[in-house]
Amino acid sequence: MSVISLRDIEVRFNSKHVFDGFSLDIGQGEKVRIKGKSGAGKTTLFKLMLGFLQPDAGEVLYEGQKLNGSTVWRARKSMAYVSQDMSIGEGLVKDFFDEIFSYEANKHLQVDREDIMKLFRKFSLNEELYEGRIPELSGGEKQRIAIVISILLDRPVYLLDEITSSLDEVLKEKIAQYFLGLKGKTLLIISHDRVWEKNDVKLIDLDNLR
Amino acid sequence: MEGSEEISTLALVLAYLLLLIPVLLAYYFKITIVKRLVISAIRMTGQLFVVGIALIYFFELDNNWLNASWVIGMVVFAAVSTVNNSELNYRIFLPPTFLAFLISTGLVLWFFNAVLVDLDNVFDARYLIVIGGMLLGNSLKGDIIGISKFYEDIKKDEKRYQYHLAMGASQREVVVPFFRDSMAAALKPFIASMATMGLVFLPGMMTGQIIGGEDPATAIKYQIAIMLAVFVATTLSVSLTIFITYRRAFDSYGILKKTIFRKSR
To answer: Which intervals of the chain form a coiled coil (chain A) (predicted)?
Structure first.
């Protein structure tokens, strides 16, 4: 059974069709890279999967269940989302972690400081940043913090939207290797970085669908 | 106890003449406020005269039902003004905002009249209408700041909002940080004015009572009680307004409905 399915999706923005009868099936444990020109609908796909956007026609299914106002909340708890273009607030980094892991959906994870520090070290984040303020972080540091959180969430599906865009080549390689090495996880990756081009990663080129 | 000195009609005309100073300054510096200033001054005069005449009859009749109706009328105006100034959709926001003001003002007004002042009749026009007006007038400002900020911030910071939804936050969990910021913004001016009260300015109620011949000690006690009551009424009205409205403002996916803002935006 597919983890995520999109059936005959139609999405229009101001009468411009971004998707017109688009279908997609993502199997459990599959690793899929999505590419396409700007405006091709890459991020729109993730928004549809997370229920931030509803299609003008067609349906989104998560584990065979149609995404609607009641099923979307469970689906979101099964996905870890990281985007290059997200806002993680303005307070302390530490409070940001506390807030996310205080949610009912995440309480069972019992993440402690050492778990966080291990990943900080793994992705070359200075441990002192944990006590620092979010606005003082660079774009790359914010991105890695969001990556650390997504890993700690340990969800079955990862939606990764240009997560290596602000990083140097060494870190790009390290992060891609980490995610591609995860066993049993379903990965959807939006990226133009070559580090994600591996044999077992299926490619969907949205430009070729038109 | 002596009453306050009468202000003659001529003296009131002189008070209007004071307006010439800002009008001349506005002309000199080409500040385009004269028209609005004149309209506002005319509105203020008309409204206060009508209210003044109505209050004379209300105080004479002192009928509980009439007094309560007056307060409910003020609650309606406060709700309309809040929704109007927040530029939110009337259909979605007016009924819950009215309810929030009614509950918050009703509770605090009852406590003020029945417990603090210990009135025999909590519907006494001099207290119900006057204190009710002060509570509403002040909590109205806080409510406009609070409710506007809450919905504006979620709209402006949509990415942060959606990120937390994606992290597994429930509808309640995801709005809490926005609620916290809105409450802080709504209450900040009150906290600041409480801290400077008496040092920077003598507040209206106390000034009125002292001019009216009341003992300053009594005036101060009333002022303290009213400030605390206003603070509580504001806290209650902002939180209740957000609490009652937020479920109607989001769709079942937890996404802020675009229709909550008026089309003119």
So the answer is: none
Residues of chain B contacting A149 with CB distance shorter than 8 Å: 167
Per-residue pLDDT at A98: 93
Distance, in Å, from the CA atom of B150 to the CA atom of B158, rounded to the nearest integer, reads 12
- The pLDDT of residue B263: 67
The reply to whether residue B166 touches residue A88, judged by beta carbons under 8 angstroms, is no
Q: Among residues A10, A117, A97, which one has the least CA distance to residue A55?
A: A10
Q: Cβ(A29)–Cβ(A199) under 8 Å?
A: no
Strand (E) or helix (H) holding B40 = helix B34-61
Q: Flag whether pLDDT at B1 surpasses 60.
A: no
ipTM > 0.90, yes or no: yes
Q: How many CB atoms lie within 10 A of CB A98?
A: 12
The answer for A 4-43 residues in CB contact with B (under 8 A) is none
Binary contact (A87, B163; C-beta < 8 A): yes
* Contact (CB, 8 A) for A45 and A99: no
Mark yes or no for CB contact B170/A103 under 8 Å: yes
Rounded CA-CA distance B191/B185 in Å is 10
* Cβ distance of B169 and A86 shorter than 8 Å: no
Any idea which residue has 């009424």 for tokens? Answer: B233
- A2 by Cβ neighbours in 10 Å (0-12 / 13-18 / 19+) ranks as middle
Question: In chain A, which ranges are E strands?
Answer: 2-13, 16-27, 31-35, 57-62, 65-66, 79-83, 157-161, 186-190, 202-205
Backbone CA torsion sign across B145, B151, B154, B158: negative
Distance CA B31, CA B28 (A): 8
Of the pLDDT bands very low, low, confident and very high (cuts 50, 70, 90), residue A173 is very high
pTM of the model: 0.84
A69 to chain B, any CB pair closer than 8 A? The answer is yes
pLDDT in tens, B90-137: 999 999 999 999 999 999 999 999 999 899 999 998 889 989 998 998
Contacts of B202 (CB under 8 A, 6+ apart): B210
Beta bridge mates, A59: A7
Q: Which of A52, A68, A106 sits opposite B168 (nearest CB)?
A: A106
Mean pLDDT (chain A) is 91
Which of A13, A100, A143, A161 is the mutation pick for testing B, counting most B CBs within 10 A?
A: A100
